[in-house]
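notes to self, project folder thing:

trying the whole complex as one job this time. last attempt i did each chain seperately and stitching them together was a nightmare. two parts in total, labels are on each line so i dont mix them up again. if this works i'll redo the older ones the same way
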Amino acid sequence: MRLTTMTDYALRLLMHLGQHRDRLCTIAEVARVYGISEAHLMKITHQLGLAGWIETVRGKGGGMRLAHEPVQINLGALVRSVEPDFFLVECMASGSVCTLTGECRLTPVFSAALDAFMLQLDGHTLADVMPPLRPRAKGPTAVALPAPTRRPLR
Amino acid sequence: MRLTTMTDYALRLLMHLGQHRDRLCTIAEVARVYGISEAHLMKITHQLGLAGWIETVRGKGGGMRLAHEPVQINLGALVRSVEPDFFLVECMASGSVCTLTGECRLTPVFSAALDAFMLQLDGHTLADVMPPLRPRAKGPTAVALPAPTRRPLR
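result (full assembly):
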């Protein structure tokens, strides 16, 4: 059982944009960071733009950014808008040709399981899953250190 | 988000066997009933036999039957044994190459969603999803009719 690569890439792309809220990011940059295809990213960027998750700026110096704060981007809503379908078994599709369609009770059982799955995602936002922003200096005492101690020793 | 065709076919195959507990069923018969490929069914039959869900009898007059009563076949256990993996997003696979692996918090969120999904299936057995066995005669009073009324009129 898998989500499509498109949804996987959409999540990664949005996490990257969430980590760089102060500037526009490019497809080339995201492709390089994750080592994934620019062509796939172009497709997903277009889809995320249409769905209103990101804003794009064209031309030289252009790029993309989140259209909302990470805490406003609900994971359930995002996955529903990107994933092409949730036909776990064939009878969940409208054009099902299974001879049991309408007779067996597989659809309600899998629909309930899918609802339980989505309910979990509905309880999280992009902010919950983003990697923590890296501190400029490492170590448990780094934040408390006064600026002069980070100067080179003379 | 989909389960594989193998799991879909496994569920249908077991439902058919559950409806014909009094005899051995053949792959050709199941393929004909559902209009699906014999080659796919052979593969899934082999897998279901190895996993102990069905028993097969070789040779002329042979076939397959459920190894347990439908009420003993748990849907969660069945899906776990047939579905190749549950890598909803790439970072759930052991060989993940995503540069965020171990940094973002996507894995625990999707793992919790998957647990909620499987918990629903764990609460059902094959008996819950099987189509109702067809009555020999239709109509609300058919069962109550005494035997003589079904004889041809003289």
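what i see at first glance: Residues 106-122 of chain B form the longest helix (17 residues).
need to look closer tmrw
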